[in-house]
Structures are given as structure tokens and as C-alpha cells.
């Protein structure tokens, strides 16, 4: 790929923000607040820490070897082709599930104006629309994505600024206030259980970090552009999430936050801001479409990487004139279409199921990234230490900390009943992919 079609630091930031900020904060934050209460602020801060560590691990390994496929390739180097196969296909499944949750969120937001139209109709329309957009952009990052990603970052920033101005008495609004933060019992209405029950959904809000490794492979001078870009990404996302959650509960009591609609839209409607609900609903709709667009990029590129390493059909390497792996994108979008059917069958519960499933598969990937990083650093130091142009500080303690935290999140996810199905389904998916690998290897389809 020539330099014209490669990323710089700015594109890396926009791509990552576009993939990470979406329905996880604009819609699923309502679920997190309903579970954890005011402690949702702490939950998002902990989630930001875990996300930060994962981004550091991915960046270090990707700078050493900026290969298409990112951490899947690194896992293969350390543990062999079997782990790379499972990792790659789990990442693809996570990407498709992320696509599904974003398209469903976009459909939910659209019913704000057209409540009589069923969810599956919007799911179908948006799936086709965003697939068409991705076909026209070799990097999955068209001008519309630049705009979409910028809009949602600006929206969260404006919301936080609006909250600060209200807190200072500079806005003609009487907010609920921070009464829920004045005592430990008020801050933790559900105890520690409330926080841990919400953590899988919190981390779903931070998923999308895998795209950083994929994008680094298409970045000019990754050792120069990646480190400052990841600092911008992690700090921006964490601050926006924590402060947005804080001010949601500043404007309205936490126990009135609905898990079925965007709390941001609820606030606009509550205070009667002219056209505020409609405008913000449009913005959060574009945020979900942006997340869908970026998730399509990451899923299709991972499938392309699997195909290059002969762990997926060769047809997925075929690119169109714009450099897009057209069949990899096509099959990802085709699987996305199952969301249309599911939204028809389970319109009231499908979103929680999808974000739980997406969160679980993402946590599996984060766990393997952390474990891979632990051994990858040792491997590089032994073979070619000069390649370590960027080192994660605090190794190996921070790597072990990330492993422990992620295992804890996965283990406690059943505390929220809606996530039990996702946990069982995700575990079954890992076993099925592993079985497929050994079966294909036994018949010599795979080396």
C-alpha cells in the first residue's frame, strides 16, 4: 500500500474514536447507571484504566510487528497457529456483534421520530447504507466517517461543558445536583455488586481498541505517530465517559434513568430545551452509524488477515478498485443481516443480549492480548530487543493486573441476569471455533 493510502496520527485517532464511541455510552449508559447508581462514574473510570492498558499492549506489539491482523499475528508468533486462528475468528465475531449492537441502537434512536415503524426495517436500511459507504473507501474511513466521529466527540464535550456551566449557575436550569454523592450508601445503592454487575457493559463501551492494531499496520512511521495518538485516544474517551456519566446524574436522579432510551435525550426532553431532544437524538443516531462504519472496517480487515494466513477462504483476500476486501466486507455485512431477523423476533431484549455477547467476545480478545503481551515482550527481548521502540511502563505488573481485572469482569458478569445468555453463548463460541480449528487441521485443510 503506498503512502497516499496510509494513515497518519490524525487518522489513527479518528478511526479509533469512531470505533470506540457509540451506543456503549449514548444508550447503554442507561443500563450501567440503573445497575450501579452513582457508582457508575467509578465503573467507567475502572473501565478506562483497563482499556488504557489494552491499548498500550496492542501498541507495543504492533510497533514491533505492524502486520495486518494485529494481535492475532502476535498471538500466533507466541502460541502458534491455533491461538491465532481462535483469536482472529473471535475478533471477527466480536466485530460483527459490535456492528449488530450499533445498527440496533441506530434503529432504536430512529423510532424516536417514527415509533410506528418496526426496528427491523431501520436495521435493514442502515446495514445496506453503511455497507455501501465502506465499499467506497479503501481504509473504511471516508469523509463522512471523519464527520461522524467528530460530531460525537464534540457532542459529549458540549454536554460536559453544559454541565459545568449549569453547576456554576450560568445556565437558567435547576438541576438535580450531586446529593447522591454525599454518602457511601447513596453512592453505592447496590453495593459493590452493582458495580461488578455493570462492568461487562462498561467495557463494551470501551471496546473497539482492536482497531488500533489494525490501523497501525496501515500507518506511516507507527513508532512516531502511534504513542501520542493512543494517549489522545485513551484520555479523551475516559474523560468524556466519566464526566458525561457524572453530569447525567447531576441533571436527573440516577433512579429515573431508563435502560431503554438514551439518558442524553431524556435530559433534553426533561428540561424542555427547544428541539433539544430531536437534535440530540439525531446526533446519537449518527454516533451509532459511525460506530457501525468503523466496526465494519475492523471486522472485514481481520477476515482479510485470516485469509492471507490461509485460515479463512482465499476469496476474502479479493479487493475492489478502492482497495476494500470486498468479499470479507460482504460476508460480515451478510451476517449483520441476522440482526434484522433478531430485532423482529426479540425487539424488547435483543439490545442487551447483543451488547453482552459483544462485550464477552471483546473481553476474551482483551484477555488473550494481555497474556500474549506478557510473553511477547520476553520473546522480543530475547530475539531482537532493538525492535522495542515503545515499551509499556510497569511491565510485567501492569500486564498481570490487566489479566486479573479482565478475568474478574468475565467471572462476575452473570450477576446481571441478562448477561448469562451472553456468557454461555460466548463460551460455546470459543469451544466451537477451537473445535473447527482442530477438525480442519486433522483433515489437512489447515497447516
CATH topology title: Amino acid/polyamine transporter I
How much of the sequence lies in strands comes to under 5%
Structural class: mainly alpha
> In CATH, what is the class?
Mainly Alpha
Shape: globular
Rg value: 21 Å
Strand tally is 0
Order of helices and strands: HHHHHHHHHHHHHHHHHHH
Mean pLDDT: 82
Reported for the largest beta sheet, the result is: none
Number of domains: 1
Give the name of the CATH superfamily: Amino acid/polyamine transporter I
CATH architecture: Up-down Bundle
* Oligomer designation: single chain
Protein model, in words:
The protein is an all-alpha fold and 447 residues long. It has a single domain (3-442), classed as Amino acid/polyamine transporter I (Up-down Bundle). It is 72% helix and 0% strand. It has 19 helices and no strands. The chain is globular and about 65 Å long. The chain starts with 8 loop residues before the first helix and ends in a 5-residue tail after the last helix.
Describe this structure in a few short sentences.
The protein has helices spanning 9-20, 23-26, 29-36, 40-64, 71-79, 81-110, 119-135, 143-167, 184-187, 191-206, 210-216, 222-251, 263-270, 276-308, 326-336, 338-345, 350-383, 397-412, 420-442. It is an all-alpha fold and 447 residues long.
List the defining traits of the structure above:
mainly alpha; globular; 19 helices; disordered N terminus; Amino acid/polyamine transporter I; 0% strand; 447 residues
Question: What layout of secondary structure does this protein have?
Answer:
Layout (H helix, E strand, L loop, with lengths): L8 H12 L2 H4 L2 H8 L3 H25 L6 H9 L1 H30 L8 H17 L7 H25 L16 H4 L3 H16 L3 H7 L5 H30 L11 H8 L5 H33 L17 H11 L1 H8 L4 H34 L13 H16 L7 H23 L5
Amino acid at each position: 500500500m503506498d503512502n497516499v493510502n496510509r494513515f497518519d496520527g490524525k487518522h489513527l485517532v479518528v478511526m479509533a474514536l469512531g470505533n470506540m464511541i457509540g451506543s456503549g455510552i449514548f444508550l447503554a449508559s442507561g443500563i450501567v447507571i440503573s445497575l450501579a447508581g452513582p457508582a457508575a462514574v467509578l465503573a467507567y473510570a475502572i473501565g478506562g484504566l483497563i482499556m488504557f492498558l489494552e491499548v498500550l499492549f496492542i501498541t507495543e506489539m504492533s510497533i514491533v510487528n505492524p502486520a495486518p491482523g494485529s494481535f492475532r499475528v502476535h498471538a500466533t508468533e507466541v502460541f502458534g497457529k491455533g491461538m491465532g486462528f481462535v483469536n482472529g475468528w473471535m475478533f471477527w465475531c466480536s466485530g460483527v456483534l459490535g456492528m449488530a449492537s450499533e445498527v440496533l441502537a441506530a434503529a432504536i434512536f430512529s423510532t424516536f421520530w417514527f415509533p410506528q415503524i418496526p426496528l427491523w426495517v431501520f436495521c435493514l436500511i442502515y446495514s445496506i447504507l453503511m455497507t455501501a459507504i465502506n465499499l467506497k473507501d479503501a481504509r473504511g474511513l471516508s469523509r463522512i466517517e471523519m464527520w461522524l466521529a467528530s460530531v460525537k466527540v464534540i457532542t459529549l464535550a458540549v454536554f460536559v461543558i453544559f454541565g459545568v456551566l449549569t453547576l456554576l449557575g450560568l445556565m437558567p436550569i435547576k438541576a438535580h445536583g450531586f446529593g447522591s454523592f454525599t454518602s457511601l450508601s447513596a453512592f453505592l445503592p447496590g453495593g459493590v455488586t452493582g458495580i461488578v454487575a455493570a462492568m461487562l457493559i462498561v467495557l463494551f463501551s470501551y471496546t473497539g481498541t482492536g482497531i488500533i492494531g489494525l490501523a497501525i499496520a496501515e500507518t506511516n512511521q507507527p513508532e512516531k505517530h502511534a504513542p501520542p495518538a493512543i494517549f489522545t485516544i485513551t484520555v479523551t474517551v475516559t474523560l468524556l465517559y466519566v464526566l458525561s456519566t457524572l453530569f447525567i446524574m447531576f441533571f436527573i436522579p440516577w433512579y429515573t434513568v431508563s435502560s431503554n432510551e438514551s439518558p442524553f435525550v431524556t435530559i433534553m426532553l426533561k428540561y424542555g430545551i427547544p428541539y433539544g431532544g430531536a437534535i440530540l437524538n439525531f446526533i446519537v443516531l449518527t454516533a451509532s452509524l459511525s460506530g457501525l462504519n468503523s466496526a465494519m472496517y475492523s471486522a472485514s480487515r481481520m477476515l482479510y488477515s485470516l485469509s492471507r494466513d490461509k485460515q479463512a477462504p482465499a476469496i476474502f483476500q479479493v479487493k475492489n478498485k478502492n482497495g476494500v476486501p470486498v468479499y470479507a466486507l460482504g460476508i460480515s455485512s451478510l451476517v449483520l443481516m441476522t440482526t434484522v431477523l433478531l430485532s423482529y423476533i426479540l425487539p424488547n431484549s435483543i439490545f442487551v443480549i447483543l451488547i453482552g455477547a459483544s462485550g464477552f467476545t471483546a473481553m476474551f480478545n482483551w484477555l488473550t492480548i494481555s497474556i500474549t503481551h506478557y510473553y511477547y515482550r520476553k520473546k522480543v527481548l530475547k530475539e531482537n530487543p532493538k525492535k522495542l521502540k515503545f515499551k509499556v511502563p510497569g511491565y510485567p505488573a501492569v500486564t498481570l493486573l490487566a489479566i486479573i481485572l479482565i478475568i474478574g469482569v468475565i467471572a462476575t458478569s452473570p450477576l446481571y441476569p441478562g448477561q448469562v445468555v451472553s456468557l454461555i453463548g460466548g463460551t460455546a463460541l470459543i469451544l466451537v471455533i477451537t473445535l473447527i480449528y482442530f477438525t480442519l487441521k486433522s483433515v489437512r485443510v489447515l497447516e
